[in-house]
Amino acid sequence: MFDNTHFSKAKKYWSMGKFYNWSKPNIHCMTHALHYGTSVFEGIRAYSTPKGPAVFQLKKHIDRFIHSASVLDMKVPYTKEEIIDAIKLVLHKNKLDSAYIRPILFYSYGNPGLVPKFCPVELIIGAWKWGAYLGEKSAQGVHVYILPWRRVHYSQYDMAAKLGGIYVQSTICGVYARNKGCDEAVFLNLEGNVAEGPGENILLVKDGVLKTNDVTESVLEGITRTSILKIAEDQGISTKIEPITKEDLFQADELFFAGTAVEVIPIVRITDGSQADSPDKEYTVGKGMPGPVTKKLKRIFMEIVGGKQSEYEDWLVYINK
Ligand SMILES: Cc1ncc(COP(=O)(O)O)c(C=O)c1O
Predict the structure, then answer these.
(1) In the chain, what are the domain boundaries?
(2) In the chain, what are the helix, strand and coil shares in percent, each to the nearest 5?
(3) Which atom of ligand 1 is closest in space to residue 162's alpha carbon?
(4) 12-128: CATH topology
(5) One of 59, 88, 129, 162 is an active-site residue; which one?
(6) 224, 204, 241, 232: which is closest to 300 by C-alpha?
(7) Is 281 a catalytic residue?
(8) CB within 8 A of 18, min separation 6: which ones?
(9) What's the fold here for domain 136-305?
(10) Rounded to a whole number, what is the distance in angstroms from the first to the last CA of the chain?
(11) Ligand 1 pocket: which of 61, 130, 201, 202 to mutate (most atoms <8 Å of CB)?
């Protein structure tokens, strides 16, 4: 049995069509994915709305999930519709009004070699209550650390895929940034421009223009990022997709992370540790507090996910329908 106090468990998780008690394990220790990172996953959020729980951009998440599986040549044992139904079932079964939802497809127990020729593909779905990813105080703005290591490059694999093994770089660097006393890491890419956080996109505001980068700068083009760009355009805020330099970060009026886990979180302080041979340098972003554009976009985003902006209803999938 698994027991600890750091995971705000739910009652049951779903595995290959069956529910299991949260603390009951059901995978073999020689599972291929455990050894080689041969899994793909999604991070999805459901929110409480006046019409009951709703999942934000569920179809886009499931499309990306299936795309990720194709990169690992997985024969997915369920259709997209079946996965969506299973996610709804998981929320129902656990009576979750809002939740973080984690579907994972992985090569299971089959053969020991790198090529998972005889390893079945299994699907597990868990959902639980997960609050602010970067801590309760993160809404006031976080302090980021620009890493000395460069992000994996878009020419090396399909960055639209969320492959378990690739996230080991995010873990190493997330730990490194925290050991430096910061809240989160920021990667530069091989070109020396800003890429992204370990699990978040970066957007900046300069002179009223909202700017972010795209896959050609070695980022996963997140669903939250793309939703925020659309919200900004609908609000008459100019947007630009172009490379972001380190100097752009230091000189930005506002800076924020966007992602399913963090949602929208202001960045107010930067430590530049990217030059391994020179001392770290500190910068304050804008006035050192969440800026007006970030606050406005975050407010609208939270209203949308909470079902309070009817023009964006098609971004939500209601569980009780
Ligand atoms: C590396 C990386 N970048 C960006 C994001 C943000 O993507 P999304 O908004 O789709 O959650 C994520 C999270 O999935 C991520 O893991």
Answers:
(1) 12-128, 136-305
(2) 30, 25, 45
(3) 16
(4) D-amino Acid Aminotransferase; Chain A, domain 1 (3.30.470)
(5) 162
(6) 232
(7) no
(8) none
(9) D-amino Acid Aminotransferase; Chain A, domain 2 (3.20.10)
(10) 35
(11) 201
d(C-alpha 219, C-alpha 221), whole Å: 6
**Whole-structure pTM value:** 0.97
Same fold, 12-128 and 136-305: no
Q: What radius of gyration, in Å, describes the C-alpha atoms of the chain?
A: 20
Query: Given the CA of residue 227, which atom of ligand 1 is nearest to it?
Result: 9
**pLDDT for residue 276:** 85
**Segments in 210-317 forming alpha helices (H):** 223-234, 246-251, 292-305
Q: Which atom of ligand 1 is nearest to the CA of 42?
A: 14
d(CA 23, CA 11): 9
Give, using CA atoms, the residue closest to atom 1 of ligand 1.
199
Q: Which residue has the tokens 């996109």?
A: 201
* The residue to which tokens 């053969």 are assigned: 111
Residue 164: CB within 6 Å of ligand 1? no
State if residue 290 touches ligand 1 by the CB under 6 angstroms criterion: no
List, for residues 10-62, the tens digit of each pLDDT value: 999 999 999 999 999 899 999 999 999 999 999 999 999 999 999 999 999 99
147-200 pLDDT, tens digit per residue, is: 999 999 999 999 999 999 999 999 999 999 999 999 999 999 999 999 999 999
Half-sphere exposure of 201 (CA within 13 A, CB side): 29
Distance in angstroms (rounded) separating the CA atoms of residues 289 and 285: 8
